[in-house]
Amino acid sequence: MDLNFTPEEEAFRSEVRAFLADKLPARLSDKVATGKHLSKADMQEWHAILNARGWLANHWPEQYGGPGWSAVEKFIFENECALAHAPRIVPFGVNMLGPVLIKYGSEAQKRYWLPRILDGSDWWCQGYSEPGAGSDLASVKTQAVRGIDAQGDHYIVNGQKTWTTLGQHADMIFCLVRTNREAKKQEGISFLLIDMKSPGVEVRPIITLDGEHEVNEVFFSDVRVPAENLVGEEDKGWTCAKYLLTYERTNIAGVGFSVAAMAQLKAIAARQRKNGRPLAEDPAFAARMARVEIDLENMKTTNLRVIAAVAGGGVPGAESSMLKIRGTEIRQEISSLARRAMGAQARPFVAEALEDGFDGHPFGPEYSAAAAARYFNNRKLSIFGGSNEIQKNIISKMILGL
Ligand SMILES: Cc1cc2nc3c(=O)[nH]c(=O)nc-3n(C[C@H](O)[C@H](O)[C@H](O)COP(=O)(O)OP(=O)(O)OC[C@H]3O[C@@H](n4cnc5c(N)ncnc54)[C@H](O)[C@@H]3O)c2cc1C
Question: Per the database record, which ranges form the Acyl-CoA dehydrogenase/oxidase N-terminal domain (predicted)?
Answer without folding.
Answer: 6-120
